[in-house]
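To whoever is on call:

I kicked off a structure prediction for a single chain this morning and the downstream step that reads the tokens threw a length-mismatch warning. I double-checked the sequence; it's 119 residues and nothing unusual in it as far as I can see. Pasting both halves so you can look.
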Amino acid sequence: MSTSLFEEAKTLVTAGNDAQAINKYTEFIVYCHRLLDGDGVAGTNGANLKEILALAYNNRGHLKYLSVEFDDAIDDYTKALECNQQLAVAFYNRGQIHYRLGKKWRVGFVVYVEYAYTA
């Protein structure tokens, strides 16, 4: 069930239905958090689920970025990194927004600090 929601969201993006894709990613994210909090299916591989959850946050963040919802996109990229600290694309995407907003000093500094503490 959980990965089918993720796949449906990706299909909606491919079809150009970004608003529906955001809703589907949100549904998937809520579902994953229920599983990770112990309210879901027994035997779920939490590590694998967190990696997919990180991708869902990143993908939803990208759609919000395209909709010029920069603060929400930054929040999603940050949540993606909380799920998977090795997801380089989330660092890059978040840095792109800071750069676009003229916060160039944050781009390198934040990545350096986060890398220094997660490496």
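Update from on-call: the warning came from a stale cache, not from the record. Cleared it. Sanity check on the structure: The mean pLDDT is 84.
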